[in-house]
Specification:
The chain is α/β, with parallel strands linked by helices and 386 residues long. The strands form 5 sheets. Strands 5-4-3-6-9-8-12 form a 7-stranded mixed sheet, with helices on both faces. The protein folds into 2 domains: 222 residues, Spore Coat Polysaccharide Biosynthesis Protein SpsA, Chain A; 76 residues. The longest helix is centred in the last third of the chain and has 31 residues. The chain contains 11 helices and 16 strands.
């Protein structure tokens, strides 16, 4: 049995725990999926605490104290220079990059066994045994595929899997110990600056790094269980049946079903990542997918949208890729991105007026002004004392 006691302090949450626990993480826009994971986990593990790391802030959209799970924030984790870490990534990248930090922090709280389950998941059975069988310091990983793919498109689909990574980071089991601590420190170090979608560079968020784990660390256990991590990547080949309220995959109890990429606004597709995979083609698995139809994300107004979001993303990329910018405070770059957005808006409006006048009078179109905004020029000198 696992127990946990906590006293909530917004600056830092103090938790003491033991035994087994589960965790996920999400931004508030995907809080509905996190609630599904937490609720279904509690149904099968009523004595185990469950934690949700909120990658952003509640900002009045909901009250964390009213949730059925324990809420953690980025400030509760041991992330070096958390302000820079938060600025460096988009919302999606941030939820992925924080994964090893969340796992390590919960083990620091005293839990001996931990299961990390990514959002967009549904727990259908008991999972504690997955980590109970791990040796001290062991790590459990699940491959996307368990057997060579047959058919004419088998090689093509396997190449797609190789781009994303052999293992799926949506289900990771960890037992406390020296070996798992080394694994987590290595994973943290790699994703701190390299957690993005850049398959040409060998990066697929936090997931692709796991390919190296079995070669680097001795106590990695690869789970060959067809009932774990059932998702769109293996649904075409993994036979799912539903009978008498029980879900089975290849004849084994299906204990974790993943809805990765499922969009409730387009239920006809099993995932947005593979438009060829339609829900009607899933057979009995479509009945499990129907659960996700009822899951709606928390609607919120994004503070950075449209052109502003693009300039903010540019500022992030310059911060990540250019050495001198790494010494800039995130607040400086946010301000520069905002100024760039205002300059772009004014310039585009001026261009539209000039085009209209030129069309009416001379019939010629003036060239776009090439002078960059003043706020972009200081970017290269940030941190140089200029």
């Amino acid at each position: 049995m696992a127990t946990a006691t906590d006293t909530c302090d917004r600056k830092r949450m103090a938790i003491s725990g033991r035994g087994f626990a589960g965790a996920t993480l999400a931004a508030k826009s995907s809080l509905a999926q996190a609630r599904v994971v937490a609720t279904s986990f509690a149904q099968h593990h009523p004595d185990a605490p469950f934690f949700v790391l909120l990658a952003d802030e509640a900002e009045g959209y909901f009250d964390p104290a009213d949730e059925a799970y324990r809420t953690l924030f980025l400030d509760d984790l041991d992330i070096p220079d958390v302000a820079r870490f938060r600025f460096s990534f988009t919302s999606q990248e941030l939820t992925y990059a924080a994964t090893p930090f969340l796992i390590a922090r919960l083990l620091d709280f005293g839990f001996e066994r931990l299961l990390f389950i990514k959002q967009e998941s549904l727990v259908l059975g008991e999972l504690e045994s997955v980590v109970a069988d791990l040796p001290e310091g062991g790590v459990a990983l699940t491959p996307h595929l368990l057997a060579p793919l047959e058919g004419g498109d088998g090689a093509e689909r396997e190449l797609t899997i190789l781009l994303a990574g052999v293992f799926n980071a949506g289900f990771v089991g960890v037992a406390a110990g020296a070996d798992s601590a080394r694994f987590l420190r290595w994973w943290q170090n790699r994703v701190y600056r390299n957690c993005r979608y850049a398959v040409a560079e060998g990066i697929h968020y936090e997931q692709r790094w796991l390919d190296l784990a079995p070669a680097y660390f001795e106590r990695i256990k690869i789970l060959h269980d067809a009932g774990l991590n059932v998702g769109h990547w293996n649904l075409p080949d993994r036979r799912v049946t539903v009978a008498d309220g029980s879900v089975r995959a290849e004849g084994r109890e299906c204990r974790l079903f993943r809805f990765s990429g499922y969009d409730p606004d387009h239920p006809e597709y099993a995932t947005r990542y593979s438009p060829r995979l339609r829900t009607v083609e899933l057979g009995h698995a479509a009945a499990v997918s129907s659960v996700a139809v009822r899951v709606r994300p928390l609607r919120q107004r994004c503070p950075h949208s449209g052109r502003r979001a693009r300039h903010l993303q540019t500022a992030r990329r310059r911060y990540m890729l250019r050495g001198p910018l790494r010494h800039a405070a995130p607040e400086q770059l946010l301000c520069m991105a905002e100024r760039t957005c205002r300059w772009s808006t004014r310039t585009n409006s001026l261009l539209v007026r000039r085009l209209r006048r030129a069309t009416r009078s001379a019939g010629c179109i003036p060239a776009c002004p090439r002078t960059p905004p003043a706020c972009l020029r200081p970017l290269d000198s940030v941190g140089r004392g200029q």
